[in-house]
Write a structure and sequence with these properties.
The protein is of the alpha/beta class. The strands form four sheets. The protein has a five-stranded parallel sheet with strand order 4-5-6-10-9, with helices on both faces. The chain has a two-stranded antiparallel sheet with strand order 1-11. A two-stranded antiparallel sheet has the order 2-3. Helix 2 crosses helix 15, helix 5 runs parallel beside helix 7 and helix 7 crosses helix 15. The longest helix has 27 residues.
Length: 450
């Protein structure tokens, strides 16, 4: 060791009590109406649009995987499909405060995080930055396709087409994918937007993200790092090692001034209550509440449990925790309460939970609750909200068209215009829409020392 600390026996044998701070649980319970002064109409609608983008993208995969078709057309998708249907608000809330200098690492279930982070990066970048990225990626090949067939009127709209198109190509093993089709569903990434490769090993991103956070700290690079994991990863040794490494005492006790403080990383546990088919609380884990795991560090990793089905609650947490990280008070552990309405994968029969449980959670679906809050708060009309939804779904349908037949497409193309080609993408039926309802989570509480 470069430095030593004298170990006094009387200190080690001294009589005392080890205490812990209370851990907040779902304290933020505000609605759109409560936050009207703190967000713009465009921001509220943007959150909803990004949630719809995720839901439609994954609904597309689910439909193709289970029925072999999407939007009335036949498709084949032999790759893996670990869907996060129901967890959209969690990802959109996380990405809202992040920019391209903030790096995310994901899991086998990270389509939602990738899409949310990409769309958030696009919203924050200048037109010049976006054009440069699109021109440079894949020798500009993707950008040329998008420019030729897009209906987008602004650079940001075109960039959204570019991003969803590249991601779709990646999942369908096409050369225009972000990893040339070699990464697929579980290894999607796009570095210009701060999206680093996902990891199919349970908890595998924990130590990798921690290493990147160490790099940022040592080199005084801007931005924070987010290590996404599921609650099932909370039993993995590498995850514990990563959290301990990120919070080591030496950062404050031994490191020189200017470099003191824990690593700038958030261990973001998407707590959907299941590790495959095992319930983490009450069955496969010992922690009771996942947020307790933060107690491995003296600062308890600033641990908090938040309502991941309210994007505003996630945004609030990331704003507060980011400030701590920038002050050198990291790391952070977030126990983000969410729920996957779909199975572990599309082959999952979900025999480990009841139909009634899924139906009860479905009543709180953020894709129905959040837009209703927007309407009730008079931020936007129902017609405006539905127009946002329809436009996002239309974009997703167009991207799959481009994937298959872009060489023969007319200019421009929308899903309402028949296409003369071997595979027409004009819709033959309307996809189901989500019913808008209103609901809220239980009142907040604390995890106490008792």
């Amino acid at each position: 060791m470069p430095k030593s600390m004298y170990v006094k026996p009387e200190d080690k044998f001294a009589k005392r009590t080890i205490t812990f701070e209370d851990i907040p649980v779902c304290e933020y319970d505000k609605t759109v109406a409560d936050e009207k002064k703190n967000f713009t109409k465009e921001e509220f609608l943007g959150m909803y649009a990004d949630m719809v983008a995720i839901r439609e993208f994954e609904s597309m995969l689910q439909s193709i995987k289970l029925q072999g078709e999407y939007n009335g057309k036949k498709f084949t998708y032999p790759g893996p499909s670990h869907l996060a249907i129901g967890e959209e608000a969690t990802a959109v809330g996380q990405a809202f405060t992040l920019d391209a200098n903030d790096f995310i690492f994901g899991t086998h279930r990270s389509h939602h995080e990738v899409i949310a982070k990409g769309l958030s990066a696009i919203a924050k970048m200048t037109d010049e930055e976006l054009i440069k990225i699109m021109e440079e990626f894949n020798g500009g090949k993707n950008y040329e396709i998008v420019k030729k067939y897009t209906t987008g009127k602004t650079t940001k709209d075109i960039a959204k087409d570019f991003f969803i198109y590249g991601l779709t190509c990646e999942l369908f093993a096409k050369d225009n994918g972000f990893a040339r089709g070699l990464g697929g569903s579980m290894h999607a990434f796009f570095l210009p937007f701060g999206i680093f490769p996902n990891n199919a090993i349970v908890g595998g991103s924990g130590p990798i993200a921690t290493g990147v956070a160490l790099y940022k700290k040592c080199n005084k690079k801007p931005g924070i790092v987010v290590a996404n994991a599921g609650d099932g990863a909370a039993a993995r040794g590498p995850v514990y090692e990563a959290m301990n490494f990120a919070a080591m005492d030496q950062y404050n006790e031994l490191w020189e001034d200017g470099y003191k403080g824990g690593l700038p990383i958030v261990f973001n546990f998407n707590n959907n209550h299941y590790g495959m088919g095992g319930q983490t609380k009450g069955e496969t884990m010992a922690y009771g509440d996942l947020a307790r795991l933060g107690c491995i560090a003296q600062n308890q990793m600033n641990a908090e449990r938040i309502n991941g089905w309210n994007p505003l609650a996630v945004i609030d947490a990331y704003k507060r925790k980011r400030k701590l990280l920038e002050e050198g008070k990291g790391p952070v552990l977030l126990d983000v309460v969410t729920y996957r309405l779909s199975g572990h994968s599309t082959s999952d029969a979900m025999s480990y939970r009841t139909k009634e449980e899924v139906e009860e959670w479905s009543k709180l679906d953020p894709l129905t609750v959040f837009p209703q809050q927007i309407i009730d708060a008079k931020v936007a009309t129902k017609k405006e909200v539905e127009a946002i939804r329809d436009a996002v779904i239309d974009r997703n349908q167009r991207m799959l068209c481009w994937l298959l037949i872009w060489k023969s497409l007319p200019t421009p193309i929308t899903t309402n215009i028949p296409i003369t080609s071997k595979a027409s993408c004009s819709p033959t039926k309307k996809l189901p829409r989500w019913t808008i309802v209103n609901a809220k989570f239980a009142k907040p509480r604390k995890i106490t020392n008792a």
